[in-house]
User: What shape does this take?
Amino acid sequence: MKTTLSILFFLLIFAMLQAQDKKAQIDINQYPSGPVTYSLDTVMFRHIAYTLNNNGSINNIGKDIVLTPYKATIIENDLLKVTVVPGIGGRILSIIYKPTNHELLYQNSLATPFAGGDIFYYDWLMIWGGIFPTFPESEHGKMWYLPWKAEIITATDDEFALRMTKHDDIDSSGRIPPKQFKYGNTGITVSATVRLMRGSSAVHLDLEVQNTRKIPVEYEYWTCTTLAPGSKVGDTRSPSNTEIIAPINKVYIPNRWEWMTKLETPSGEKDIYQYDKLAEFKNWSDMGIAYASPKITANYWGVVNHDNNVGVIRVADNKNSTPGLKLWTWGVKSTTHDLQAPDIFRPYIELWAGNSTKFFKPAHLDGGKKKSWTETYLPTIGLAEFTNVNKYAAAFLKTTANVDMRTLRAQVFSVEPTNIFEVILTVNDEKTIKELLHEDWTPKLKESTIFEAKIANTDLPLGKGEWKLTLLNKKDGRILFEAAIPR
Assistant: This one.
């Protein structure tokens, strides 16, 4: 009898714990509205030992594996855990999407310094990963391994913001830099402010480039992103079934990347090719560089891991602020490399956003002037294709037809699941708008939502027009998102 009672008691406790756990899951899935918090921590950079000369060039690359500690600021809400490391390049090292426990960014499990070839400003590089500013030169610039000053500028339950700044006062000396690095001591100051809001899974990076001198200056600014969405936390990698999401038609391929020129179709312009097969990681037979040509004007680009359809998308005013888009990978063979080996080849997608359109092509800033913009990085869940993305949502629209009916299908994911949206599907021409669907929607955390609406062919507006998805904020009626495809 005692044994039976003990078993019953155990089952009762187990059921209560399950119910509590289920309730906790339901709460976080339905009401992710807890405060934004932050904490200070130390993260360890695991790399091959090295020493530097006084001018920043490499002195010696050893064989031992060492752990270098860096102070980190951990910013969290119910949806994201963001790790920021100002002490080495002012970088966002990690973005973890909590509902699915997926990492969005790449972190090198064992970094190896590599040097030579006069490629980089200090003639060497070592990759940790994440998202980080590079300036005022091409090819990772001067500041990628240096500490940035950091200060908390907002810390409330609704928002946390950490500003990192770095000033260029570095003069060329000795064998540095190689001859292609020509901007010199620019006197430019860059600030990068990382912001996270309550109830949102979007990370905002506010950037400002300021010319502190009275005379015009030439420089380059690029945000380097190393992307591996859908990764297991602590084991980041992009599988071969990964796609670069870039709404561009053509790319400029420097002539040294012959394998790329054989892969894509020539456009008829020198070194310009159609952008098609390079979108798929599995087609990158080697490392290489390509640039959006002549520039990118759409407001978004990113990467999707098609093994689980988890993506990370960057949203910004590319047309006016960052028209440069550079594509780089180590090649698909990197997916089979031993990540614990001292090897430079690593499986991630490296996309760059630039104030200018190519490396070694300068941007210009008049004396005393500044250039400011915001980059928003957000996860997408369940979407394999994209019609539009903004800082609130991402969507893919598609129509199908049969003999007498057309169907509009919209697949949507939002980074603001605490909002109630009004979802509206319409079809129009120049004179008429027909509403096909209008309903309230609370976004899901672990999957996208599909909306469908049908219309008889005889009811379609007669002129040219488009199919359209609109998301309104239920509370105040503001239009937060739109996506459309032509009829």
Observations:
- The chain has two helices and 32 strands.
- The CA atoms of residues 405 and 456 lie 4 Å apart.
- The two ends are 73 Å apart (CA to CA).
- Residues 1-29 have pLDDT under 50 and may be disordered.
